[in-house]
Amino acid sequence: MSLFLVKGAGVAGLAVAYELLRRGEDVDIVDYQDTVGQGASFFAGGMLAPYCEREAAEEVVLTLGLDAADWWDQVVPGAVIRNGTLVVTQPRDITDLTRFASRTTGHVWLDRNEITDLEPSLSGRFEKALFFENEAHLDPRRALTGLAKTIRNLGGLFHLGWGPSPKKNYTAVLDCTGPAAIPHIPGLRGVRGEMLYLETGEVTLSRPVRMLHPRHPIYVVPRDDHRFMVGATMIETEDDGPISARSLMELLNAAYALHPAFGEARVVETGVGIRPAFADNFPRVVETGDGLAIAGMYRHGFLLAPAMAKQAAIRLSNGAALREEMIA
Amino acid sequence: MLKLYETELSSRLLLGTARYPSPAVLSEAVRRSGAGIVTVSLRRETSGGKAGGAFFELIRNLGVRILPNTAGCHSASEAILTAKMAREVFGTNWIKLEVIGHHDSLQPDVFELVEAARILTDEGFSVFPYTTDDLIVAEKLLAAGCRVLMPWCAPIGSAAGPRNPSALTAMRAAFPDIPLIVDAGLGRPSHAATVMELGYDAVLLNTAVANAGDPPAMAEAFAKATDAGRLAYLAGMLEPRDMAVPSTPVIGKAVFS
Ligand SMILES: Cc1cc2nc3c(=O)[nH]c(=O)nc-3n(C[C@H](O)[C@H](O)[C@H](O)COP(=O)(O)OP(=O)(O)OC[C@H]3O[C@@H](n4cnc5c(N)ncnc54)[C@H](O)[C@@H]3O)c2cc1C
């Protein structure tokens, strides 16, 4: 049995901590924030949408992401909502929808009535939609709180907030510091994502809805308490300053176009997350001086953390665990 | 060889850098297109005045000439500010000047455009104006100091191809010595070939490549079509003939009927 140190309690750090504990290792987790999941993970939509993401991502994102919903369901029971994803567009941008369909699999076309059956709030608003039945979503904040609890139950030790870092003899250190790793890991860059939360009782959605647009595609992910996460911009910069007026306007405009009732909603939160990414936008487990790093989760933190965490845990864990994994 | 503001270029294709699936795909598309110039949006990839360091570094490392643009600017003053920022960030006097008149259609505001072109030229910029196919606007841009014109052939991102080929032909005829680059509206390689056959000097693409299923392959397809169109223009093409009207009495007809 070995002792590992996980630096960073975001989705990557927590996922790998869990995977190591599951293999019988000991794990300490440090984060300078007082609670888990306050980094990029805090701002995520929480979509587990491997089929939709295939539109702009390589096939491997689909294959590695397929099991994500099962993984989350297992480690945080009840966290995953399996209602699929709905993709719509304004009539003028219908070619974007056909293009989306041609780039992806796992969907069916819905007509006006079928859209109403699925999402009564959107009744009469769209003639056509794509439905990705086998996708899922979760609330990232709740999921990470739940995952931290699972980790504690398995014996993982958290050292949160500023304080003396534990001085122990670690077998290896796992750098899961998300965007903070950008200066240290060659090839890593930041992609800014701006988002907001709307609150209204006038719209009900049961699943994430993506609205395509040539310049400002958005998605709306329903949460409990009449809240909706609206995201997200993709800007090539590491600047994590407050959301710009332009982005706010674009996101609100798009939400309003999806449903006019969003015009009356309250803006209860705005946020900016930096997605760490490599040039191909695909994450990697890379070697560092004292261990491994899980880096470049890009816009697939919740989708790909399970697969990346397993990969890292297998590499770190002892040979017995490795064999066991291969048999499993 | 194509000559833009005293710079000679072997490729007649310019590539935009926005909306690719990843920077890696973008790099590969630039490589396979053989493009000698890429355009970069300053406004899109900056926020609060802070530039997208890593992305801009990546663009610099492509090893091609950078033509920063003022995409997203809606007034002359905004565009001028962005051009100055671009000069700082990329160390170039080249600026692709876009002043958008309508947020939705992205149609250029030619009045603000001419104004900004004049001021920027006075300040030492080499201005590449994104304009319509209007000849009078073109004249004003040249009077303002522009030595290149970049007319659209259809609205940005429409992929509609040349909507008004006779206007493009008229523009070519009106400005035989000015490099003309079709910017915006090209959807498929045949569109690029068509405007090159009309005698245009180059084409600029972004969405048609970036949003293709396989952007690097599409970049190469466009490069080939651009070259083909240019070669055909130089080689001299046959004009279509109306075969419905006989040019001589049909001799055989009398015999066999
Ligand atoms: C707007 C937006 C929407 C998104 N939507 C989705 C989505 O729908 N689905 C999806 O799968 N992904 C989504 N993502 C992507 C996802 O959020 C990221 O990929 C993921 O959160 C990155 O996780 P991480 O653990 O690598 O980094 P982080 O979550 O940033 O975690 C890093 C942690 O390390 C800590 N830390 C940093 N430096 C140190 C240090 N020196 N010592 C100790 N601790 C340190 C930080 O405090 C932080 O807690 C979205 C991202 C954004 C911005």
Automatic annotation (TrEMBL), chain A:
<dbReference type="GO" id="GO:0009228">
    <property type="term" value="P:thiamine biosynthetic process"/>
</dbReference>
<comment type="pathway">
    <text>Cofactor biosynthesis; thiamine diphosphate biosynthesis.</text>
</comment>
<dbReference type="InterPro" id="IPR006076">
    <property type="entry name" value="FAD-dep_OxRdtase"/>
</dbReference>
<protein>
    <submittedName>
        <fullName>Glycine oxidase ThiO</fullName>
        <ecNumber>1.4.3.19</ecNumber>
    </submittedName>
</protein>
<dbReference type="GO" id="GO:0050660">
    <property type="term" value="F:flavin adenine dinucleotide binding"/>
</dbReference>
<keyword id="KW-0560">Oxidoreductase</keyword>
<dbReference type="GO" id="GO:0009229">
    <property type="term" value="P:thiamine diphosphate biosynthetic process"/>
</dbReference>
<dbReference type="Pfam" id="PF01266">
    <property type="entry name" value="DAO"/>
</dbReference>
<keyword id="KW-0784">Thiamine biosynthesis</keyword>
<dbReference type="GO" id="GO:0005737">
    <property type="term" value="C:cytoplasm"/>
</dbReference>
<dbReference type="GO" id="GO:0043799">
    <property type="term" value="F:glycine oxidase activity"/>
</dbReference>
<dbReference type="InterPro" id="IPR036188">
    <property type="entry name" value="FAD/NAD-bd_sf"/>
</dbReference>
<feature type="domain" description="FAD dependent oxidoreductase">
    <location>
        <begin position="5"/>
        <end position="313"/>
    </location>
</feature>
<dbReference type="InterPro" id="IPR012727">
    <property type="entry name" value="Gly_oxidase_ThiO"/>
</dbReference>
From TrEMBL, chain B:
<protein>
    <recommendedName>
        <fullName>Thiazole synthase</fullName>
        <ecNumber>2.8.1.10</ecNumber>
    </recommendedName>
</protein>
<keyword id="KW-0784">Thiamine biosynthesis</keyword>
<comment type="function">
    <text>Catalyzes the rearrangement of 1-deoxy-D-xylulose 5-phosphate (DXP) to produce the thiazole phosphate moiety of thiamine. Sulfur is provided by the thiocarboxylate moiety of the carrier protein ThiS. In vitro, sulfur can be provided by H(2)S.</text>
</comment>
<dbReference type="InterPro" id="IPR013785">
    <property type="entry name" value="Aldolase_TIM"/>
</dbReference>
<comment type="pathway">
    <text>Cofactor biosynthesis; thiamine diphosphate biosynthesis.</text>
</comment>
<comment type="similarity">
    <text>Belongs to the ThiG family.</text>
</comment>
<keyword id="KW-0808">Transferase</keyword>
<feature type="active site" description="Schiff-base intermediate with DXP">
    <location>
        <position position="96"/>
    </location>
</feature>
<feature type="binding site">
    <location>
        <position position="157"/>
    </location>
    <ligand>
        <name>1-deoxy-D-xylulose 5-phosphate</name>
    </ligand>
</feature>
<dbReference type="GO" id="GO:1990107">
    <property type="term" value="F:thiazole synthase activity"/>
</dbReference>
<comment type="subunit">
    <text>Homotetramer. Forms heterodimers with either ThiH or ThiS.</text>
</comment>
<dbReference type="InterPro" id="IPR033983">
    <property type="entry name" value="Thiazole_synthase_ThiG"/>
</dbReference>
<keyword id="KW-0963">Cytoplasm</keyword>
<feature type="binding site">
    <location>
        <begin position="184"/>
        <end position="185"/>
    </location>
    <ligand>
        <name>1-deoxy-D-xylulose 5-phosphate</name>
    </ligand>
</feature>
<dbReference type="InterPro" id="IPR008867">
    <property type="entry name" value="ThiG"/>
</dbReference>
<feature type="binding site">
    <location>
        <begin position="206"/>
        <end position="207"/>
    </location>
    <ligand>
        <name>1-deoxy-D-xylulose 5-phosphate</name>
    </ligand>
</feature>
<keyword id="KW-0704">Schiff base</keyword>
<dbReference type="GO" id="GO:0009229">
    <property type="term" value="P:thiamine diphosphate biosynthetic process"/>
</dbReference>
<dbReference type="GO" id="GO:0005737">
    <property type="term" value="C:cytoplasm"/>
</dbReference>
<dbReference type="Pfam" id="PF05690">
    <property type="entry name" value="ThiG"/>
</dbReference>
<feature type="domain" description="Thiazole synthase ThiG">
    <location>
        <begin position="4"/>
        <end position="249"/>
    </location>
</feature>
